[in-house]
Specification:
The chain is mainly alpha-helical. It is built from two helices and no strands.
């Protein structure tokens, strides 16, 4: 995993507290979540959805 400085301590704390979870491989691909969000926006009558 690539490391960063800004916000790293906060993310590490959230991981340790169980507020976030580490995802790898196919589970880390957010494509399905984005598709669901697009459908939700479309179905809500919002016409501007990329």
């Amino acid at each position: 995993m690539t490391r960063w400085q800004r916000g790293e301590a906060e993310i590490e704390r959230m991981l340790a507290d169980g507020q976030l979870q580490v995802l790898i491989g196919a589970a880390a691909d957010g494509g399905q979540w984005l598709a669901k969000a697009r459908r939700t926006l479309r179905d809500s009558g919002r016409s501007r959805c990329p």
